[in-house]
Description:
Blueprint: E1 5-9, E2 26-28, E3 41-46, E4 49-55, H1 70-79, E5 84-93, E6 103-105, E7 108-111, H2 137-150, E8 154-155, E9 159-162, H3 171-179, E10 184-186, H4 189-198, E11 202-211, H5 227-248, H6 263-271
Parallel strand pairs: 1-4, 1-5, 5-11, 6-8, 7-9, 9-10
Antiparallel strand pairs: 2-3, 3-4, 5-10, 6-11
Helix pairs in contact: 2-5
Amino acid sequence: MQADIGIFGGSGFYNFDGTEGGAGVEEVVVETPFGAPSAPVTIADVGGRRVAFIPRHGRGHEFAPAGVPARANLWAMRALGVRQVLGPCAAGSLSPEIHPGDFVVLDQLVDRTWGRPDTYYDAGDAHHVSYADPYCPIVARHAVEAGERVGVRMHGSGTVVVIPGPRFSTRAESRSYRAQGWHVVNMTQYPEAYLARELGMHYAGIALVTDYDTGVEHDAGVPPVSQEEVFAFFEGNVHRVRALLHDLVPQLPSEPTGCGCAAALGTLRAHDPGAPK
């Protein structure tokens, strides 16, 4: 069983098409050298493309951000033949210009996590993978265009700062992130986006803004975020995420070119002959 596009579901996004086990949906259990993925992979046809879907937190949200088995998730996708990965995620706004309900197609990432298994090169000779541009610009452009077609408010670029979780930011931390000029805050984009690069996949991070983090400087009346509000907001807007993805998937090229995302895979195969083809 094969697929060429992969999708990870975030908080409140536990199946792709709104049905579990629906018509034409196949389920496959993939074993990886890094343990089991967050859930069995569901594969379905979307606009003539074979799409593999994994809810990154598990079907019952049993994996906290630091516990998401990201290496297994990405390896499973690549073993099924996936070349392009879409990573919708919940995020908090750090900017008064980015509002709850907006989508941000990410182009830069700042990692503030620690201790997460974040490489396939953890044994043998040293290998250093270029990561100056964390996201695929080709897939990102198509994501922006899809959002505009379905009528959601899009920001075509943005920097995400990835924090460890599961706690939210302190007010001082949030002020610091805003002072750096970063745009949104999230808990799972790293190492997911980076592991996709090591496997030579084209990854796009698509953030649905659910809240204003600890509030924004121009509006002191905005209360700090809570888990209940984030989950409820994402679940209430997941239909908009699905609409964007259903429009986007058929428009993606068979293989993006000119971005350099796939270059690292050859190095990994040389390092580990067991790497997925």
